[in-house]
Design a protein that fits this description.
Length: about 375
Amino acid sequence: MALALQSADTAPDIVCEDTFQLPSDVAAGYLTNLSGYLKDYKEWNDGTFYGALVDGVTYEDGSVYGIPYSTDTRGLWYNKDVFTAAGLDTNWQPKTWQDVLDTCKIIKEKCPDVVPFWCNSGVATGEGTSMQTYEMLLYGTGEQLLDNNKWIVKSDNILKSLNFINTIYKDGYGPSLSKVLNGEAGNIASREYLPKGKLAISLDGYWMTGNYKETGAAPWPEYKDRLGIAAMPTSEGQAPGSITMSGGWALSIPNLSDQKDAAMDFIKHCMSYDVYLDTIIAQGNIATRTDIAKDASYSSQPFMETCTGFLSGAFYRPRNSQYTTVTTHIQTMVESVVSGTSPEDAMAQYKSDVTNSVGAENVTEK
């Protein structure tokens, strides 16, 4: 997409932007400032869109470069049949990371043919590894990626996060590396292992349930009864007790589009109440319009109320154009730990990589 956006001959009229990429694409001059189009967009101006998601498509100068059409939250999905077989409570809510590891230990002992825990862990799963695994852990320690707009490259909490990942694989709680270090890892977990009772716990997002609907990639009519969802706890159970990262996607107009007015009209059509309601339900995503959240056909979906509730305390990735570079180093760091590098050495390499990429003046240690 980045290549297509560089030429008037190849630039489409509408693109789907992962909001973590939006700051760097704006900085590169790829996207159209939509602020002028929004002056007469009623739903935009009357608070219909969640404020945090509006912030996510707003550049540092206050200009808007996308209309958010989906958001998400993450948690610990678990197969209740496996929990029952292991003698565990199917109303599971761990209070600390140690509770999660203790549960994995029991599952490994009682159900040896089941993978206890799955999280995105490699470069091939890209942002899923950065956001759904590492940042869910790091933010759960109370630390974030940035401190005073400088990237934290060495800290006890980075080490604590990497040690959790290391324990998952060192103690045999995770899947084989051949399964987890490829681009299809997330689909293997959600479409094959979890529904078939080959996986106990998966750290993943709400969108995963879209697979299980009649129109999904892996229909599973019983999913609402056989799956459970627990909030990811903070490291030691400290306030606020649980953690979720949230992101989402936006509809944007390339700067080199020659049909900007028509593109914006079409985006408004896509986001109109009836069209958007049908779309977001079919996608299995969380809505960005507050009025959709109140619609019974939407709110009655399995797990929707719980996962939407996670938004109230959600954290979002930094709106910093350097993030798209830093996130690749996060993925490398996580994969190196999974592949056998010590957490200390992996963090040292991360420090070197990030410092070389963003400059020593933009990093800090804690």
